[in-house]
Amino acid sequence: MSSQGKLRVTYSSRGTPRYELEIWHSGLKERHVVKGTNKVDVLSRAQTKMAHWDRSATRIDNKQQAADRTAEAQGELRDLETILIQGIEHNSAVDWESLKNFSDYEESQPKPPVLPKMDFITKLIPAWRKNFEDRVAKQVGRFREKLVQWENQKDQYIKERDKANELIEKKKEAYLSGDVNSFIDYCDMVLSSSQYPDFFPQTYELEYRPEGKLLVINYQLPAPAEMPTLEEVKFIQTRNEFGEKHISQIKQNKLYDDLLYQVALRTLHELFNADKVDALISIVFNGFVRSVDPATGHEVNACVLTIQANKDELAQINLSNVDPKACFKSLKGVGSSKLHSLTPIAPLILMNKEDSRFVASYGVADQLDESVNIAAMDWEDFEHLIRELFEKEFVGAGGEVKVTQASRDGGVDAVAFDPDPIRGGKIIIQAKRYTNTVGVSAVRDLYGTVVNEGAIKGILVTTADYGPDAYNFAREKPITLMNGNNLLFLLQKHGYKAKIDVKEAKKLLS
Q1: 332 FRET partner, CA 20 to 30 A, in 207, 367, 460, 508?
Q2: What is the pLDDT of residue 237?
Q3: pLDDT tens digits for 70-118?
Q4: Is 206 helix (H, G, I), strand (E, B) or coil?
Q5: b/e for 364-387, b at 16 or more Cβ within 10 A?
């Protein structure tokens, strides 16, 4: 029988949910991960796949099983050859109404109990009568309790449903009004809803430059080794086993190269087609592939193709009839002659990580010892100390951390850039040199800043601790809360010693 794991949900840098459900069949030795942005669709596709496996497992005719697996394998190969066509046939514009929930509360209303009737004898005997009436009253009381509980749950469901729908409507209005952050959110929704085979990483970074209506995309593409290659399955009766035939290396290389050209063109088409507020004139697509360099054995993430296309220019092309490579080249796209060789090239336009708020940083950690009370140090020194610590955390992976201008306004104190294409991106760091418990309002502010900055995560660091409301709010959000103990541990991890004495700090600071 087929089995399934736990439905997992992750969020993109723009907050778009993405669901994943792992399913497997031990008898067929099949394993699959169903991905998508719609929970119901993911569960439905998983059930369909598992039902198919179960039917396959119960077949007695092994030749039929082989034929089915061959048809499925060839179908997967054909799907890769038509990735571009699939994108063209799909309307990529966000259907705001489909994102809303209009369903009623599903749990049925409790039914009134069937009350017994009092017989003649019970009516005549007072003790029996009272006992009967008490039992009936208890039944009625339990029903009323259930009814009140049901009504409360229904009201709560409707409130949450209407609130979620209201947020979607606000997102729609912000997008239509030309809000820059809302436009990036919209592009993220478009790309997240684009259906690709499960082996696709489907992760990306987006940067929008409103002055030129230019969108820059760093898009993560699958590596050649992740491509399906199975072409045919035969049942070998003499050995009572299945034999597999895979496509040749030459065909694998051609299929891979063609796929990457298709993805680049499809992404351009989907974003231009979805743009309903004329916010886009041009898009730069930088395609990256993560793989292991056979010469060094180290993991690399190389840009293997890059293209810049204008909306009007692409609109003149009938993408349903083009040769993907020829079309890519005609649009002045750049890539090596053999994309499967993963030869690195320079992107046409790099993402801009510069920020006018950044200021020169200075070292603080080397001045620490066990006598230094971090909770009482100068607040600006504290921010640079936090920058210094996180720089040591990220520098090993090629990241960087920058400090913003001193403002003491609770905004962005530092920004980290994690270059990892899968889990990386912009990270907002706030430093709170507090001697009192940090409340939920500070965590809410951080979350709002993360959303406004288009960051993938927020980190709040304090010398004190957080209240229960703060921890509850941060749960299941891209927020990490670090208290004084966590900070001391991070210092020790990087070879520094200090102390946090809140009581002493209160006296000194007063």
Answers
A1: 207
A2: 78
A3: 999 999 999 999 999 999 998 899 999 988 999 999 899 999 999 888 8
A4: strand
A5: bbeebeeeebbbbbeebebbbbbb
Q: What is the mean pLDDT of residues 191-202?
A: 90
What residues form DSSP beta bridges with 162? none
Quickly tell me which residue has 């793989």 as its tokens.
Answer: 291
Query: What fold is seen in the domain 1-58?
Result: Double Stranded RNA Binding Domain (3.30.160)
Q: Please determine whether the domains at 1-58 and 358-509 fall in the same fold group of CATH.
A: no
**How much helix, strand and coil, in percent to the nearest 5, is found in the chain?**
45, 20, 35
pLDDT tens digits, one per residue of 448-490: 888 877 788 899 999 999 999 999 999 889 999 999 999 999 9
- Measured between alpha carbons, how far is residue 42 from residues 9, 14, 17, 123, 193 in Å? 11, 21, 12, 61, 12
Q: Can you read off the two tokens belonging to residue 376?
A: 């009482």
Tell me the β-bridge partners of 81.
none
| Cβ atoms within 10 Å of 357's Cβ, excluding its own | 13
Secondary structure class of 407 (helix, strand, coil):
coil
Q: What is the pLDDT of residue 409?
A: 42
Cβ count near 1 (within 10 Å):
10
**Burial class of residue 224 (count of CB atoms within 10 Å of its CB; 0-12, 13-18, 19+):** buried
DSSP code of residue 237: T
Q: Does domain 358-509 have CATH number 3.40.1350.10?
A: yes
For 135, the 3-state DSSP assignment is helix
- Distance, in Å, from the CA atom of 282 to the CA atom of 315, rounded to the nearest integer, reads 12
In degrees and rounded to multiples of 5, residue 282 shows phi and psi of: -145, 150
3 contacts: CB under 8 Å, gap ≥ 6: 23, 24, 25, 26
How far is residue 221 CA from its own chain's centroid? 16
Residue count of the chain: 510
Helix (H, G, I), strand (E, B) or coil at 351: coil
- DSSP alpha helices (H): ranges in 396-482? 440-453, 468-474
Run of H or E residues at 33? strand 30-36
Q: Tell me, yes or no, if the pTM score tops 0.90.
A: no
34, 42 in Cβ contact below 8 A? Answer: yes
